Amino acid sequence: MSFVIVFFRLLKILRVFARYRLDQLLPANLPIAARALLFFFKLFPKPAMSRGECLRRACEELGPIFVKFGQLLSTRPDLVPDDVVRELNHLQDNVAPFPNEEFQRIVETSLGAKVGDIFASYEASPLASASVAQVHTAVLKDGRDVVIKVVRPGIEKIIAQDVQLLLLVARWVEKNTLDGKRLHPVEIVQDYRTTIFDELDLQREAANGSQLRRNFLKSPLLYVPEVYWDYTRSNVLVMERIYGIPVTDVAALSAQQTDMKKLAERGVEIFFTQVFEHNFFHADMHPGNIFVATKNPQLPQYIAVDMAIVGSLTREDQYYLARNLLAMFRRDYRQVAELHVQSGWVPATVRVEELEAAIRTVCEPIFEKPLKEISFANLLLSLFRTARRFDMEVQPQLVLLQKTLLNIEGLGRQLYPDLDLWVTAHPFLERWLKNRFHPKTLWGELKRYAPEWMEKFPQVPDLVFNSLQQLPQISAHMEQLSNDIAKRDANERQQKRRTAIALLAFATAGYFVWQDLSPTLLGNVALSDISPSAIALAVVGCAALLFRK
């Protein structure tokens, strides 16, 4: 994508920010360069709307990446003022829709039939309109209630421009800031690019939904609607329609006497079950995607939709993450520090004692407090300062998990502020680690990989014999490589000597030329006027180059 297109996209972003006067959301003590830019904003009149509405409309106008950022902010009432949160909540599923005619055209083109031929009934007004897609309700010919989801037309171009802009910023940050390389901004943006473009593929979302439904099929914790594959394409998804209460509608949940404590605890249990038992977690758990079933308010069940973004961890990261959390719950900060070194999250040269003391300083204040008194945002900020001190690198594979954890915290605050996250999570992690090394689990792993091992086992004697035969050849190759390195070093030294001789010759010739021209150029300035120490330094430098080994 050309730089010109990205540049004009940046100008549009700045113009939208200025037109909605988003400078009113910023603190007063900004750097001088930022204040100079904000002077441009003040050339625009203040809109006749609240600051929250200004931010919401700016996000809607700029497209899906900004809408998703607004969605994340809406889940953080501890960081964002209430009036702004109320407006940003509209971004969950109330973005301005595109015309029904366009929606119907996409459905008919993708499915190869008229809407009336596929569905018994179809609702022209959208049920929900989000940043990436729009949803309408319908009824199949066999009477099943469904929803039809369609990707917004032309959205790929806008996302590509925004991602390219983010990459430019990330490359600049990585190259020009102290923390750039440690934070891996380019790698994070590239991962996000993959994630956001995967979100535009509704067949991928359908596959994610099918997997998540299978994982919780017999669970009372979470219900995932069924996908109807016969009517699903890359830009059209038809799935079971669910009926529930939006998780943020606390008044409706209270009216049916929902056990809010149990609801909050089950949300935490769902998160840890997905991350550790299934290693497949819903990574876009903002309130617009989460509902609560009405069947049994005393044992409430969650309903999840929009599985476009999911995440998983490697077995190593999964193991180290669980042990880190468990060690923190036990306040074993020494083990936390050791695990950070073992996992490679911090350099091996870090002194474990110093890292242990720093982690204790960050973690100790958060324990034995209800969730309403703990802010993961402040905790992450403190950990960031600690990471900077010890050159801890950002782990891109954990970014989605961190984002999901922030969403879970936001939901927990709204549902049951007195929830003790540690008491809820601690026994789960204890049980998971115990089961990981249980003989039954090890036997299951053995059965899973035994066919592959048995397939390769007959080749082992030949592999060992061939390796022993190749040892003399490897030794000869190593000796040849050592000789080649020695020759290369000798050639480099010889080249340096030649370069030094050429420089010395050039300096000598330059001196004679200078002697011929100096009376003309500088009058009476001659070699005798040059500092002897400078001449001596030049001679010593040339000699060092000539006789360097």
What is the percent of helical residues?
Answer: 55-70%
Mean pLDDT: 78
Shape: globular
Strand content: 5-15%
Helical region count? 22
Radius of gyration: 32 Å
Q: What structural class results from the helix and strand content?
A: alpha+beta
- Uncertain residue ranges: 520-528, 530-537, 542-549
Terminal-residue CA separation: 50 Å
Largest sheet: 5 strands, antiparallel
Describe it.
It is a single chain. This protein has helices spanning 3-19, 32-41, 51-62, 64-74, 82-88, 100-111, 115-118, 155-176, 180-183, 185-199, 202-215, 250-255, 260-278, 315-329, 333-342, 352-363, 376-389, 399-415, 421-436, 439-456, 460-522, 532-547, and strands spanning 119-122, 128-129, 133-140, 145-151, 222-223, 236-240, 245-246, 281-282, 290-292, 302-304, 310-311. With 549 residues, it is an alpha+beta fold. It has four domains: 3-91, no CATH class; 100-260, Phosphorylase Kinase, domain 1; 261-437, no CATH class; 468-547. The strands form three sheets. Strands 1, 2, 3, 4 and 6 form a five-stranded antiparallel sheet that branches. Helix 13 packs antiparallel against helix 18, helix 14 crosses helix 19 and helix 21 (460-522) runs antiparallel to helix 22 (532-547). The protein is globular.
